[in-house]
Amino acid sequence: MSSPQFAWIPTGAVAALALVLTTACASPVSPTTAIPSRPEASNPAPVPTSAPVVLTVRVLRRSVETPLPGATVMLGVHAAQVNAEGVCQFSLDAGATAEVEVTAPGFQPLGAIGVLNNDQRWTFYLEPAGSAGAPSFRVVEVSANAVP
Predict the structure, then answer these.
(1) Residue 137 falls within a domain, yes or no?
(2) Is 44 contained in some domain?
């Protein structure tokens, strides 16, 4: 093991070195001097919400293709009655899954599920209840293009 190395510094040089270090390191801070602080973590940018898209639902009688006013359209827990033209609308976030069920007194219910990435128009053709061979409920998966 090696022994420590010492260097002798003349007394006058030590005093001069001490004076230089004291002067260089002594910077007085007054109450009005801003003390730089550690940079705070910046707030993350807000996650952009999807632009709303509109789902237009139209309900028609299957055999005659006329509007079925008063039909009820359920979108999840939200319900709407179609107007005299058989139409109602919902606003959703783009990319949302729409699960729609359409009912009307005296008609077989009908449903559809689809993902909305743009404004869409879905048309449901309801059959009268008790129609020969009509199932009690059908689910149709819908794929549609943007509404022009």
Answers:
(1) yes
(2) no
Task: Supply the pTM of this predicted model.
Answer: 0.58
Q: Which residues contact 128 (CB under 8 A, 6 or more apart)?
A: 61, 62, 63, 106, 107, 108
> Could you list the mean pLDDT of each consecutive 10-residue stretch along the chain, which spans 148 residues?
43 40 39 47 57 95 93 95 97 94 96 95 94 53 58
CB atoms near residue 52 (< 10 Å): 13
Range of the domain at 89: 52-141
Number of domains in the chain: 1
For residue 129, give the CATH number of its domain: 2.60.40.1120
Q: How far is CA 111 from the centre of its chain?
A: 25
The sheet with strand 96-103 has its strands ordered as: 78-81, 72-75, 96-103, 110-116, 138-141
Q: What is the DSSP letter of 5?
A: P
